Every structure is written in structure tokens, then in C-alpha cells.
Amino acid sequence: MPAEAKTPDLGRSLDTVRRDLLDLGLRDPLLNYRTLRGRGLEIVDEDPAEVFRLLVVEEKRMTFLPASTAPVETAGLLDQPEDHTTRLTDLRLQTAYTSTQLQARLLATYHSARTSMEEQGVNTLYVALGMLRWTEREESEKEYHAPLILIPVELERPHARQKGRSLAI
Hints:
Layout: H1 3-6, H2 10-21, H3 48-57, E1 62-65, H4 84-89, E2 92-94, H5 99-120, E3 126-134, E4 144-152, E5 154-156, E6 166-168
Parallel strand pairs: 1-2
Antiparallel strand pairs: 1-6, 3-4, 5-6
């Protein structure tokens, strides 16, 4: 038998390996992101360009702000409009969680990321800026979300007794 007949087609082998390396299944959180039940956060009402500028360009530390659960007392005065520009450029990321929910989710996220780093040497903690919404077919109603820009971050607590956590690159 000639040697050529025994060697597999190199192009076909490369295609097989390439398909095995690319996981295009919906289990991949980069293609089908879902907020987990107990960890991870959704940041709401922020400008992604400002968050990018603060975290990456200026290398600032950011903290999380829980959702306000009680209306602010105005002592009989008319409500004043919130300064939207200042809120978008401050160092606090708005969330939709109560203070208790926020602390629990941050702690679970912190431990999960730390475990991943210690056991596998892989950083799994990122801030995702922007989500691509997509469907498998045009007529499909099931919508998937894929993060567009990922920024590697760390969660850190200034002191072990403090509850608040800050976000740092």
C-alpha cells in the first residue's frame, strides 16, 4: 500500500480539530449569557463608555450602589430632578439589588472567582459592557445574550470587617 493512502487528509483533520476547539453550543456563556441565581451582578442605568473610561483608561476603583428601596424625604419640597450626568460619571455602579442581595451576590461572586483563580489559575471575573441580543432563526422568539466587551477585574474588600466591596482592575 502506498504511503499516501495511509496518511489522512490534512485539510479534513484540521477542520475536525477546529470544530472541536470552537464550542458554538449554548452552554458557552460568551454566546449565551444568563445571570446566575446567586452570583454575578447586572449593572443598570450606566453609560458603558464612561465605565470603560473609568476602569480602563483612568484605572479607577469603582464600588456598587444598591437600589434605593425607600423614597427620599423632601420635607415638603418638590422633588428635584437627579443630575443624570454626575450619576453616570461617578465611581459607583448602579444595581437593581437591595443592599442585602447585593452583599450576598458580591460575596458569592468573590469566592467563586477566587476559587477559580486558586484551583485553575484562570481569572473568570469580568465586567461585560454591552450585550448582543440574538436569535437562532429570524422567526424564533427565544432571545440569547452575548457580551460584547469584557474587562478583567478583581473584587476586593478594603478590610475584612467591612461589607462594601470595590471593583478594581
